[in-house]
Amino acid sequence: MQSKISAFFKSSSVASQSPAPMLPSFDQLDDNASDKKEPQIIVTYKRRAPIFKDLDDSSSEKYGNWHDGLHESPICSANSSLKPVSISLNKILNKKRSYAQFHLDLGQSDFLLHTCSVCGFKYSPGDKDDEKIHKTFHKNYTRGIPCKTSCNERVISMPTIETGRIILVLHDDHPAQKTKVHEVVKMMEIELGTNWIIHNHCKVYLFISSHRIAGCLVAEPIKSAYRVIPSSGYAESEVINGKEPKKRNSVLLQFGNVCFRREVMRKASLANDPEKSTGAFICETEAVSAVCGIRAIWVTPSNRRKHIASQLLDAARKSFCMGFVLENTQLAFSQPSSSGKALACKYFGTASFLVYKANHVENLVGY
User: 20 to 30 A from 249, CA-CA: which of 28, 189, 271, 330?
Assistant: First the structure.
């Protein structure tokens, strides 16, 4: 019995001492896997040119050379079956953007061309060339055309002029002075009309201040003129029409022993003011003698209300005829505008001044 039991345990111990079956190792698996032919991928790296080439020394010291190790691109190849691929960074990344100004056409009257309300120049808003030309023209119109001092000038000595001078330009003068006259005449034609201002028999007086032509007077010889009939007052016109003038409305206000009387004054119409009235002139039928005709007179907008026109009229009276000074009654205006009528009334001190009809330039020789 004992022998059977020991034999049982002996067999189990022998079985346990027998080596266990060996499992395949990783190397064997790698060898078996290498038997199969598969493509092998080899990854290499190539240094690229740095992108930030415009960094200066201060910025490179601040940020270091961090971009030298980051800009490397892999070039892949698999047993020469794949061709190497390279990416070029020669493209300009920071291109300047171009901005264009657009306009909305909503039916504006001045969509294409804008007219300046002061100088009358038409230009295209947004166009740099047009705006530059308009700026120059606007400055010449409002302040005067530039004019340099010349040694051939006929200066009219006027003791009343504190700043500036008045020169006389004739048809036979230097071409440079005649060119300036034509430039001024173009400015005058904006307000006074075209093709009638100047001809060969005219004498041109230029008022120059701060190296710019601030005013211009064009005079011509005449033989006769007509006197303007001044407009009558409001009360006189009502009496002529058979109507009695209306009495002023008065209201009496009493506060205790104090009384106040309020009167309503009726404003005079423009027809009563000879300087502000507009429309046709009513002249006498009988002509009177006159010597100097003021064909046109003009002052730049920024120099008005400075007595420049009056000084030009004084210079014309003094130098139009050699040897003597003309009287006010020997001057006549040619179809003056409302501003010209106001000037004549103020200069002559009366609304009954002389006027004449100026001949058209086509009937005379051009300047």
Answer: 271
